[in-house]
Amino acid sequence: MLGDYRITGRGASDIAASVESAVGSGVLRPGEALPPLRELAQELEVNPNTVAAAYRLLRDRGVIETAGRRGSRVRARPATAPRDAIRIEVPPGVRDISAGNPDLALLPPLDGALAAAAVRHAAAPALYGGVPVDPELAAAARAAFDADGVPAGPIGLTSGSLDAIERVLTAHLRPGDAVAVEDPGWGSTLDLVPAMGLRPVPVAVDDEGPLPADVARAIRAGARALVVTDRGQNPTGAAISAARAAELRSLLAEHRHVLVVDDDHVHGLVDLPLHCLSGVTDHWALIRSTAKAYGPDLRLALYTGDPVTVDRVRGRHRLGAGWVSHLLQRAVVHLWETGAVDPERTARAYGERRDALVRALAERGVAAHGRSGMNVWVPVSDETGAVAGLLQRGWAVAPGARFRLGSPPGVRLTVSPLTPDDIGPLADAVAAVLRPAGPGAATDLGRYG
Ligand SMILES: Cc1ncc(COP(=O)(O)O)c(C=O)c1O
Q1: 62 has which bridge partners?
Q2: Cβ(403) – ligand 1 distance below 6 Å
Q3: What average pLDDT does the segment 162-185 reach?
């Protein structure tokens, strides 16, 4: 069961720590079965309740999972091994299109914005007891939400989308609760949910967003929350269409207890309208990160939601980090006020690269997806083979394993670093590696995979 490894400890937290450190160091492998409660209790000469408490702690931390009579096992993806770690070494000379970063040339320079923030700081420094969100930033965010039809609600601010998603889920859910997540979907959300001790329930997506029948199934399976990416879905590029949003909204209206989290991370750099799911259930939040438009290091996300959710998130935030630095807030105000990023130009720049790549692949008989954002998703039958084959041909792409729970394999190609001259050679390399059965494959644009 555990090979030579001996779990040690007399108290619940020591026993949990002994298991957690073995998982962290790789001595206990994903999928490995832990001893039954009574057996371990006998071996350690402790009460079975102590072992039960240790296992509960480990479950809550996302280290193990318990499947009824089959007992407890080390999670396939423990919180200690994030999907980001599934990286490939990029040898010199190989083009890296695996990272999902924005095009550096499309990010605004920050010197003017940070200097303006420093000047403002000198005149009116942010101190303990001040307002957590800069009033001008909040007003600009509210106006942008209104312009996109986001329901009314107070404004809050976190250090990025993932921070906001975690805080919103924490405000309503308890360890063990189920959360519907896109599959394939953003690896960070797929890691975060089990790391919080929550249970991910996969929902399939196509180019228009999550499939309603799958969302209904997830809710029937007990999902208490649904996290969706409105546009620029990572990795597939899906964007929720008006028709899909209407269908999902009427489904959610019948399940008002479901917490809805809209992640609109590509706001400011897509040309497709927002069709969000917020506002039909009792509790919801819509989150807009500045990471993609202004760069991942400007770690800030504005969110709105129903008053209870925003109030809980703000209250808990106050007890920890307190607020997001006003220097960063003022820098974002400056970037917004000066129109530092032209959304149409940026959307066009990414759109041209995506469309050209998807078209070039289709001409070579390869079906690919990329409706919005900065990524193109190519379904493949052998992910490892595709990644290795492309690496040999000079391209490092992201293996779909970083984005999948149970959905079929694929690879993600980030178009940010591509120039028009890259498109043909890249499409040739993908086609050569996949050796598609025939041109019919190019018309398969249904459910991913
Ligand atoms: C779907 C999705 N949401 C949000 C983000 C940005 O998250 P954060 O603001 O935490 O950097 C990303 C970044 O890759 C993403 O893929």
Answers
A1: none
A2: no
A3: 97
Beta-strand relationship, 223-229 and 178-182: parallel
Which amino acid would we find at residue 283? H
CB burial string 81-114: b at 16+ within 10 A, e below: bbbeebebeeeeebbebbebbbbeebbbebeebb
* Pair 280, 249: CB distance under 8 Å: yes
Query: CA-to-CA distance for 226 and 169, rounded, in angstroms?
Result: 10
Ligand 1 and 178: CB distance under 6 A: no
Q: Are 78 and 31 in contact (CB under 8 A)?
A: no
Structure tokens at 322: 């307190």
Torsion of the alpha carbons at 449, 180, 400 and 406, rounded to the nearest 10? -60
Please, which pLDDT band fits residue 137 given cuts at 50, 70 and 90? very high
375 lines ligand 1 (CB under 6 A): no
The Cβ-side half-sphere exposure at 422, using a 13 Å CA radius, reads 19
Ligand 1 atom nearest to 100, measured from its CA: 14
DSSP state string for 20-40: HHHHHTTSSPTTPBPPPHHHH
Q: Which residue has the tokens 């001893």?
A: 35
* The pTM of the whole model exceeds 0.90: no
Distance 239 CA to ligand 1 centre (A): 15
Q: Regarding predicted confidence, which is higher, 67 or 57?
A: 57
pLDDT category at 216 given cuts 50, 70, 90 is very high
Mean pLDDT calculated for residue range 203-230: 98
Confidence of residue 70 (pLDDT cuts 50, 70, 90): confident
Q: 358: part of which helix (H) or strand (E)?
A: helix 343-363
Report the distance separating Cα 278 and Cα 281, nearest Å. 7
Q: Which atom of ligand 1 is nearest to the CA of 301?
A: 9
What distance in Å separates the CA atoms of residue 156 and residue 279, rounded to the nearest whole number?
Answer: 16
Question: Token pair of 3, please?
Answer: 């090979």
Residues ≥6 apart with Cβ < 8 Å to 398: 98, 99, 100, 235, 411, 412, 413, 414
Closest ligand 1 atom, residue 185 Cα: 1
Question: Which residue type does 149 have?
Answer: G
289 within ligand 1 shell (Cβ under 6 A): yes
User: C-alpha dihedral over 344, 155, 163, 97, to 10 degrees?
Assistant: 0
For the CA atoms of 338, 339, 341, 343, what is the dihedral angle to 10 degrees? 170
Residue from 144, 194, 186 nearest 339 by CA: 144
Nearest atom, ligand 1, residue 162 CA = 10
Higher pLDDT, residue 14 or 351: 351
What is the token pair recorded at 132? 């957590």
